[in-house]
Amino acid sequence: MFDLANAESREDHASRLMRDGEMLAAALPRLVLEARRVAATVVHGLHGRRRAGTGENFWQFRRFMNGEPAARIDWRRSGRDRNLYVREREWEAAHTVWIWPDCSASMQFVSPLAWETKRDRCLVIAFALAEIMVRGGERVGIPGIMRPTASRAIIDRMADALLALPDLATANLPPRAPVSRLSEVVILSDCLVPAETFGEEIRGLAATGSRGHVLQINDPIEETFPYKGRVEFEELEDKLTITAGRAETWRDDYIARLAAHRAALRRDCDTRGWSFAVHRTDQPPATAILALHQRMGPGSRDLGPAAGGA
User: Fold this and answer.
1) Where along the chain do its domains lie?
2) What SS3 class is residue 130?
């Protein structure tokens, strides 16, 4: 028997995907221009991703550690005091950075406290970061969507790849796709998924040997919950609604649950050696990009408040 309810549901889903695709296509030219402007701003404050490894250029001296070959000691530098030093060279090999921009339905939320949706801010950060990575000699890809490339037209390639996916709006986290060992993964999302689902995703990616960074993107109203009186809330992913008679009485419980959820996400990242930070859409994207870029590679696991986090 023909299932009229399911047929209507499929039709509504298809219509929503089409609308989402049209909205994304209309917004992309503006987002691309904004990303290039932000990337150019950030680049002025960078001096390259300097890391220890194989190469020809000197990077820094560090203390000699027991068990290392004595041939690595720089005797001229060591002769200046009582310590032994090793001369480290800058890491020069290009590697892969996988960037995942969450374009799911919840990312299309925007409040009167911000001037753009979470999705638009997410794409600006993704595009700008990709541009900066490619300028630095890295390769950039989108997990399960776009193969890594060092093309100077990286922003255009990412935009085309995202537009070619009609079901992109259903994915909060990266799809299960092979991620090369020793690469870096950047997840840009509001992370509005169960903590268990998030933890499983991080464990799967970290198992490949890749480093990772999560930037949780929130609208400021999601942080402060300033609602009062009777308010109807709509869940954008499944179109569920709930009504609060006196929304102000929900505030403390909401903020406590948000903090607990975020602590669980951070704990999963810390356990795997990944970094975690929060960015609000009422703050400049360049601040988050600069802090994120500076932590990529060996270093601190926590981006901290420099990334615009709460």
Assistant:
1) 2-47+93-307, 58-89
2) helix
